Amino acid sequence: EAGVVQSPRYKIIEKKQPVAFWCNPISGHNTLYWYLQNLGQGPELLIRYENEEAVDDSQLPKDRFSAERLKGVDSTLKIQPAELGDSAVYLCASSSLTGGPAEQYFGPGTRLTVT
Amino acid sequence: AQTVTQSQPEMSVQEAETVTLSCTYDTSESDYYLFWYKQPPSRQMILVIRQEAYKQQNATENRFSVNFQKAAKSFSLKISDSQLGDAAMYFCAYNGAQKLVFGQGTRLTINP
Fold it and tell me: B interface mutation test: which of A37, A58, A110 has the most B CBs within 10 A?
């Protein structure tokens, strides 16, 4: 079974430029998460999807961040414009149980560097 | 809001020895899950062990076991017979109402 796939693995951009990250969850997993992980810190939830609905986006900085999950499968996270402080690893995770705690499976992450 | 605290930023252990990583959490919920995740230098986060709060018996997975003290809100991870492949960042995490909250992590070094 394929795991959570993320691309690109690394991205370097100049500040004020846009950037997008893509995530393909494990087949059949209806719940998808985007996390932000700063260096030396634990991941912090940005947004959680149940199928195509964003059910928890309270930590997503909506002035510059946006996300979508069309057809309840793949998801894209976008930053526009990027700031120096956005340099971090962006992790995608998925799980299969709706309505209760479940094991989350993580992708390898996208390491973003904003110069 | 739930919080998770890992008070040991770094730990080291000799190969084949036993090491314990500490974790405390704060919550007002009665039903929740606790996890230990491992993140090797390649950064793929993988689940090591989980504990349901309503279960009194401590979870065990091969060389990994936990000491769950619900009243004290403590959830430590014991790694027995440490191996070089155990070197990684270890994150304690709390999951109540579908939201996974992570601690700051403990970097574990295995000395050969």
Answer: A37
Show the CA angle centred on residue B35, arms to residues A20 and B14, nearest 5°.
100
Residue A1, both tokens:
């079974």
Handedness of CA B40, B46, B49, B50 (dihedral sign): positive
Closest-CA residue of B relative to A36 is B102
Query: What is the rounded distance in angstroms from the CA atom of residue B102 to the CA atom of residue B104?
Result: 7
CB contacts, 8 Å: B94 with chain A: none
Q: Could you report the average pLDDT of every consecutive run of 10 residues in chain B (112 residues)? A: 92 97 93 93 87 91 96 97 96 84 96 94
**B contact test, residue of A35, A39, A104, A105 with most B CBs within 10 A:** A104
Q: Which of B73, B64, B60, B61 is closest to B23 using CA atoms?
A: B73
Residue B107 makes CB contacts below 8 A (sequence gap 6+) with B9, B10, B11, B88, B89, B90
